[in-house]
Amino acid sequence: MGRTLGLVVCALAAFPSLAIAQRFDDVGVRAQGMAGAFVAVADDSSATWWNPAGLATGLGVVDLSVHATEGGGRALAVAFPSLGLSYYRLKISTIQPFSSIGGVGSSRQDNGAVGSQLGVTVGQSITKHMVVATTVKLVNAQGETQADLDAGAMASFGAVRLGVTVRDVRNPTFGSGTDAVELSRRGRAGAAVVTEGRGSLDRLVFSIDADLNAARVSGRDEREVAGGVETWWLGRRVGVRGGAGANVAVGGGAFGAFGVTVVPYPRLSLEGAVTRGSTRDQWALGVRLTF
Question: Which site among 44, 64, 95, 241 is 20 to 30 Å from 79 CA-CA?
């Protein structure tokens, strides 16, 4: 009996609950096209994921978006000024043990777990320059549902925007024993310059983002710095964007991104983005309705 208990304790010590995090750019086609430099831009319904405070700077009264990503990610979000509703279903890529309980080796494999969240986003203006907001959400993973929240702030001074957001503030843990998965808190800050264009160029955005802490994503440490640019042309009927970034954690790598939006009819946008790099290879497609 004592020997069996000892083996269990050793196994739990060898495989503690895994601290993992979801990538910021798992959601948002525009954001992916800008290599994830979007925390201070976040002016569409994907702000419910990127920076809740961004809803106050939305481009329309109602913004509805649906998108799909490589790996089976799905998203549905609808946003009004300072209010948003969202549903996200994503693969939570974790590294789980596959050795027997008696083997205390460190071998692990990707279990391909799927997580989902249902959220309500609300915000409040603090001054004419600053908004703070939060997304209160129910997160389901490993067969459990827990409450969590994201928080964000956005400040605007003319053409300059500053943003900061923290995801998974409560650090929820799902499952137990060797199957336990902890969703790590993750912070990100960004700055952007948003200007009206001239001539055939209708809008120009420059942005930069940086993670405030490292997190475990897809079995590796990740702490990203990214920069992006977005341009709008032909009466904002065509949007073209691109960006590049790097994982500055040990063993990280660089990546680049490109994205396009086409507006075939007023209020209807068709969007696509692709990201390629040493640690990243993904695409996203989306549809937006803006009123």
Answer: 241
